[in-house]
Amino acid sequence: MINAHLILKKVVFYVLILITWQLIYLSNLLPELVLPSPSQVGESMIIMITNGSLAYALGTSFMRLAIGLVISVTIGFTLGYYMTKHRILYDTFGSLVLGLQSIPSIAWVPLSIIWFGINDMSIIFVIIASTIFSVIITTYTGIRNVPTLYIKAATNMGAKGFVLMYEVIIPAALPYLISGLRQAWSFAWRGLISAEMLITILGLGFLLITARNVYDMPQVISVMIIIMTIGLVVDGFIFSRIENKVATRYGIR
Amino acid sequence: MAKLELRNVSKFFNHHNNSIKTLNNINLQIEDGEFVCLVGPSGCGKSTLLNIVAGLEKPDEGEVILDGKTVNGTNPDRLVVFQEGALFPWLNVIDNVEFGLKIAGIDKEKRRERALHYLRLMQLDKFADSYIYQLSIGMRQRVAIARALVMDPEVLLMDEPFAALDAQTRDLLVVELQLLWQKTRKTIIFVTHSIAESVCLGDRVIIFTHRPASIKKEFKIDYRRPRLMEDPEINKYASNILDALKSEVIAAMKEENK
């Protein structure tokens, strides 16, 4: 639902931030290196857009993100599913997964560089490592929480094995699987930027760290704004919309 | 030969390492096209018995015989309509009704046609594309009945399907179910704790004792259809049965207060 009043409040808020920022800049309290003006940041963003460096960086980053997430979700889902099937897997492997999940994504970078070197593969590995464990856990929880009534009804109508899994268990676990995916996305996004800043070959994180290396503060800020905006759009618009829709349909709210 | 026969069915369940008997030597014969109601105090094991007939649970002793053959496991020839409907929220109404046919591998066109037929029968064809959350509980139960009937089961098993409904909706559905039964002549086993409901619906009302459940008494209800819940004749039948059941309810209450 589009709410004009809400939009107005937001616009006014962000305009106020820009005005305050501009005023601080004009007051000369901070050196230009520390705080560039909004227009300098805007200019830097326009340059990145027009010379194609932003598009190239985004393309590179999203390619890595997509590959990493696809691998992580595929393997993570399969492992999570088998953990619901075999108690022994949950008791043994499950505890390790819980531990590994608590490692911040950036802590995977040194290991990844030593294993794979400075290349795309090591960045993709960081994305996989920082997401797969939460995918395993949400898949496990989601499938375990499928109401037995659905399974009873479906079994009664003749569903079993793969058909039961595909037609009932996965769709029934969907609310969990989607919030798992949402969490995986946000871990992947953070992991990606951290990895690209340390394993510096192209991408959005690379754009950020090279700007810092030449003290190009407008570009540092504009890349940060882009990172924030993408995070916001994917999480706040795409995922939260899907989640709300699913929640309504499943009668969760 | 009876359509469905329960022969010496007993069931135990484990409670703190004690084996407790829930069903005690149930013998029951149900004729083809008969509408039988099972009534008993709550928690007496009627639903367990229904699950056993459905093959969702195994009896510890005895057997269930359908058309002369001992049943083994669950099969769409004995379909349950659950108290909570158990419809799938990720499917719309018509896809829910088609579910069993899809599992059976019937092609898209044919199953749509059959599903629509039963939706029309339940006066729900206008809601074919709705999702479950958009329906009232009464409508959901009608979809659940359509979903079971579309499979053309040998026996329809109904596990307190009207228990969650408000009184008006329930009274309507009680009439609707009778009309439906008169049209389809399905063999129906209907579990309820409401005596009035059972008298209104059943050709036969079978009263169960408190745990371990066994058959206490059965009543033949020989009265014109469709019967209405508010009919004084129905109330007369009901109060007779209530007298028979009273001692069981008291026994159940005493047990719970221990």
Overview of this structure, please?
The complex is a heterodimer of chains A (253) and B (258). By secondary structure, chain A is an all-alpha fold. Chain A has 10 helices and no strands. In chain A, helix 7 (148-156) packs across helix 8. Chain A starts with a helix and ends with a helix. Chain B is an alpha/beta fold and 258 residues long. Chain B is 38% helix and 25% strand. Chain B has helices at 46-54, 93-103, 108-121, 137-149, 167-184, 195-201, 232-257, and strands at residues 4-15, 18-30, 35-39, 61-66, 69-70, 78-81, 155-159, 187-192, 204-208, 215-220. Chain B has a 6-stranded mixed β-sheet, with helices on both faces. In chain B, helix 5 links the parallel strand 7 (155-159) and strand 8 (187-192). The radius of gyration of chain B is 18 Å and the shape is globular. Chains A and B meet through helix 7 and helix 8 of A and strand 6 and helix 2 of B.
Question: Which keywords apply here?
Answer:
heterodimer, A: 253 residues, mainly alpha, MetI-like fold, 10 helices, globular, B: 258 residues, alpha/beta, Rossmann fold, six-stranded mixed beta sheet, 7 helices
Record field, number of beta strands of chain A? 0
pLDDT below 50 for ≥5 consecutive residues: which ranges of chain B? none
CATH topology of chain A: MetI-like fold
Tell me the total number of β-strands of chain B. 10
Proportion in helices of chain B? 25-40%
The second-level CATH architecture of the largest domain in chain B is 3-Layer(aba) Sandwich
Rg of chain A is: 22 Å
β-sheet strand percentage of chain B: 15-25%
Q: What is the end-to-end distance of chain B?
A: 44 Å
The outline of chain A comes out as globular
Order of helices and strands of chain A: HHHHHHHHHH
* Text of the CATH class of chain A: Mainly Alpha
Number of helices of chain A: 10
Q: Which structural class fits the helix and strand makeup of chain B?
A: alpha/beta
Per CATH, the superfamily of the largest domain in chain B is: P-loop containing nucleotide triphosphate hydrolases
Q: Any idea how many domains of chain B? A: 2
